[in-house]
Specification:
Blueprint: H1 9-14, E1 17-18, H2 20-30, H3 35-42, H4 46-53, H5 61-71, E2 83-84, H6 97-100, H7 116-124, E3 129-131, E4 143-146, E5 150-153, E6 158-160, E7 167-169, E8 174-178, E9 182-184, E10 189-194, H8 197-200, E11 204-207, E12 211-212, E13 217-218, E14 221-226, E15 232-234, E16 239-247, H9 257-267, H10 279-288, E17 292-296, E18 299-304, E19 309-313, H11 316-336, H12 342-358, E20 360-361, H13 363-372, E21 383-386, E22 392-395, E23 404-405, H14 406-412, H15 417-424, H16 429-433
Antiparallel strand pairs: 1-2, 3-9, 4-16, 5-6, 5-8, 7-15, 8-14, 9-13, 10-12, 10-16, 11-14, 17-18, 18-19, 20-23, 21-22
Helix pairs in contact: 3-4, 3-11, 11-12
C-alpha cells in the first residue's frame, strides 16, 4: 500500500489512532521482542524491519502475512491504514473516526460482548479468524458454528455425515463432534461457548469447555448427549454450538498454556488435515506441534530439540513462531548451500521428511497446493497439471474422504519434498538461488 494512503501521522494522533509503524512498535514491545528478534522470526532483513517500524517503508502484503503469524492476527489486519490508540475508546454501536475514513475497527477493548456488526468487522479485519465464515451464522451478539463432516461414537466408529448422509443420535447415546469452522483468537480476546436453544428443546445436551482461551487456534471439540425421548438426526453443516466474542482490557501475562492450545489443536486429529486449512497454515501448525515450551524466568523458551533450535520471548506464541521461522530459514539455507556440514543436512532432512510424511492433504487441499505452486490445472475430475517445461502430467487426487501426504504429492510432481514444503509454506526465495529442472517423462 502506498505511503500516502496511510494518512497523515499528525492527523492520526489527533484522531486517537496509531499509524501502522507506531502500532507495530507497540506490538513488538508487548511481545517482549526487539527488531533483531522480529527480523529472525520473520526472515526479513533488519534494515527492512527498521524502515517499517520507523514509518519509512509501508507494510507489504507479504510482510503482513509474516507479521500475522508472529502476532496472531490475520494478514489483512496489518494492511489497515490506522489502528485505535490505547485509551481511545469506541462506544459499542457507534461509528468510529476510522469507519468514517473507510477503515472500520472493532469496538474498544473491554467494552463487553461484540454485537453482530462488530463480529463481522472483527473477522473481516483479521482480528479473529473463523474459517469458513458465513455472515448468515452471525446472531445479534454471537455467532453459530456448524457440525463437521464426521462424528465419533463412544465405541470408536467414525461416521461420515456429508452430502445428505446423517447420523441418528438415539436417546441416552453420546457422540464426540467437532466444528466445521477453524477458530483463531489473538491474545486479547476470549470466546464464551454456549449450547444451541434449538437443540436443547429436543433434549440434546452439549458438553463443552467454558470458554475459548486467548491465543487458541483450532476447531472446537465437544460431546452431544441425547437426554430426550426421541431420536435426533445429525448432519454435516447444521448449526451445533454458539459462541460470544469478548475483547479483553489487555492480554494475559505470558503463559506456556497458549502454546499447549496450539499443539493440542494440531495433534488432536492424529495428522489428518483441517478441511478448510491452507497448506501454509497446515505446515506451520505441524511445525508448532513439534515445539517444546518451557518457562525461563520471566520469559518462555520455545525449542525444537531435533534441530537444536531455541528462542525466548515474553509471550509463548511469539517464541513458538520465531523458532518455527528459524527452522524454515535453516531448511532454505541448507537447500541452497549443499556444501554445509553433512550432519546438518541429515538432521534437517530427517525432521522435515517426517513432517512431509505426516502432513496429509485432502483432494481440495491438493488442488489448492498445486495452484499455489503456480501450475495451471484442469478443474474437472481428471486434474491435469501443466509443468513449467510445458509438459503435462495427470495428478492423482486422493479419493473422497481420503488424503495424500506431502511426500506423495512431491513424488508425483518429481520434486524434492523439502523444496515443496518450503514453497507451500511461503518461503520462496530459495527458488531464485536454486532453479531446478521440472521436466517429467510423459
Amino acid at each position: 500500500m502506498p505511503t500516502d494512503v496511510r494518512g497523515d501521522p499528525t492527523a492520526d494522533a489527533a484522531a486517537g489512532t496509531l499509524t501502522p509503524a507506531e502500532h507495530l512498535r507497540a506490538e513488538i514491545e508487548r511481545l517482549g521482542l526487539d527488531q533483531v528478534a522480529v527480523s529472525e522470526a520473520t526472515g526479513v532483513s533488519r534494515q527492512s524491519i527498521n524502515y517499517i517500524v520507523n514509518g519509512r517503508q509501508p507494510i507489504s502484503r507479504a510482510m503482513a502475512a509474516k507479521l500475522g503469524r508472529l502476532t496472531g492476527h490475520e494478514p489483512d489486519y496489518w494492511l489497515r491504514a490506522s489502528f485505535p490508540r490505547p485509551g481511545a475508546a469506541v462506544t459499542p454501536g457507534t461509528v468510529s473516526i476510522e469507519e468514517k475514513r473507510g477503515q472500520a475497527t472493532v469496538a474498544a477493548r473491554g467494552s463487553g460482548v461484540l454485537v453482530n456488526h462488530q463480529i463481522i468487522r472483527a473477522i473481516k479485519d483479521g482480528v479473529i479468524t473463523i474459517d469458513p465464515f458465513d455472515e448468515a451464522n452471525v446472531q445479534l451478539a454471537s455467532i453459530d458454528l456448524s457440525l463437521n463432516d464426521f462424528i465419533d461414537t463412544m465405541t470408536g466408529e467414525h461416521i461420515d455425515v456429508t452430502d445428505g448422509q446423517s447420523f441418528v443420535l438415539r436417546p441416552g447415546q453420546t457422540v464426540i463432534v467437532t466444528t466445521k469452522e477453524w477458530v483463531r483468537f489473538p491474545q486479547d480476546y476470549i470466546g464464551r461457548v454456549g449450547a444451541m436453544t434449538s437443540l436443547s428443546r429436543c433434549g440434546i445436551m452439549t458438553s463443552h469447555g467454558l470458554q475459548i482461551d486467548p491465543g487458541f487456534q483450532g476447531d472446537l471439540q465437544f460431546c452431544l448427549f441425547n437426554a430426550g425421548g426421541q431420536d435426533f438426526e445429525l448432519h454435516g453443516g447444521m448449526p451445533i454450538i454458539s459462541i460470544e466474542i469478548v475483547p479483553l482490557n489487555e492480554p494475559p501475562s505470558p503463559d506456556e498454556r497458549a502454546a499447549k492450545h496450539v499443539r493440542d489443536a494440531v495433534t488432536r486429529d492424529n495428522g489428518m488435515p483441517l478441511r478448510y486449512a491452507t497448506c501454509e497454515r497446515l505446515i506451520h501448525d505441524a511445525l508448532r506441534a513439534r515445539v517444546n515450551v518451557a518457562k525461563k524466568g520471566d520469559k518462555t523458551e520455545a525449542r525444537i530439540p531435533e534441530l537444536d533450535l531455541a528462542f525466548e520471548a515474553h509471550f509463548a506464541d511469539a517464541a513458538i513462531e520465531a523458532v518455527v521461522q528459524r527452522a524454515l530459514t535453516g531448511l532454505r539455507f541448507l537447500r541452497t548451500h549443499p556444501q554445509t556440514a553433512r550432519e546438518e543436512h541429515t538432521r534437517y532432512a530427517e525432521f522435515f521428511g517426517d513432517i512431509a510424511d505426516r502432513l496429509h492433504l485432502d483432494a481440495e487441499q491438493t488442488r489448492r497446493a498445486v495452484l499455489s505452486l503456480g501450475f495451471p490445472i484442469d478443474t474437472k475430475d481428471a486434474v491435469i497439471v501443466s509443468l513449467r517445461d510445458g509438459k503435462e502430467i495427470l495428478l492423482q487426487l486422493p479419493p473422497r474422504h481420503a488424503s495424500l501426504s506431502l511426500t506423495q504429492l512431491a513424488r508425483q510432481l518429481r520434486e524434492d519434498a523439502g523444496d515443496l514444503l518450503l514453497m507451500l509454506a511461503g518461503v520462496r526465495r530459495h527458488l531464485e538461488a536454486s532453479p531446478r529442472n521440472w521436466s517429467i517423462k510423459t
